[in-house]
Amino acid sequence: MELSTYGYIVGALLALIGLAALGAKEPFFGAVQVFPRHSLWARILTAVVLGWTVWILFNMTLGWFEPYKNTIYFLAPVAYFLIVIYLDELLAPRMLGVLLLLTAAPILDAARWHDSPWRLVLTVVVYVWVVWGMVLVLSPYRFRKTIEAWAANDVLFKSIALVLAGVGILLIGLSATLY
């Protein structure tokens, strides 16, 4: 995909999150507060992450492991059930973190070869979410603590929501004009 497509997608997601937080703080906060222990979201995100990982592994050259590539189809469902059963504690934020890490690579690859210096705006946004993804994978309880700290102060909540919406709208505008 082109950088403009990624800019539209990332911009729309950020603007949607920011505007949803601004428009309905209580329902937004309630949904986000339930997310870390929500088993359905955890299972969906785990399936998406494992599916994407299997696709990456199957399409890369694995050297001496190449003849055993077909075992990935057997190991992926086994890994899914083991993860869902034994790593169910705060699984949704962990898988969200892994998903953030996985989505960064194609976006950064598209930004690498783009001519405009404005590509760095999307690059910085992606690197911020890579750091957030690493935090979520390593310590998923920080998701809940961050959201609670964000929601405790009304000015901070509105400021962060406005920044998210503003960055999203900026990325959509850059995608429409410069990317």
Gross geometry? flat
Total strand segments: 0
Radius of gyration equals 18 Å
**Largest sheet data:** none
Give helix % range. over 70%
Task: Return the string of H and E elements.
Answer: HHHHHHHH
Q: What percent of residues are in strands? A: under 5%
Helix count?
Answer: 8
Q: How would you classify the helix and strand content by structural class?
A: mainly alpha
* Low-confidence segments: none
Rounded mean pLDDT is: 90
Task: Tell me the distance between the termini.
Answer: 12 Å
Question: Into how many domains do the coordinates divide?
Answer: 1
Task: Note down, in words, how this protein is organized.
The chain is built from 8 helices and no strands. The mean pLDDT is 90. It is an all-alpha fold and 179 residues long. It starts with a helix and ends with a helix. Helices cover 82% and strands 0% of the residues. The protein has one domain. Helix 1 packs across helix 2, helix 2 packs antiparallel against helix 7 and helix 5 runs antiparallel to helix 6.
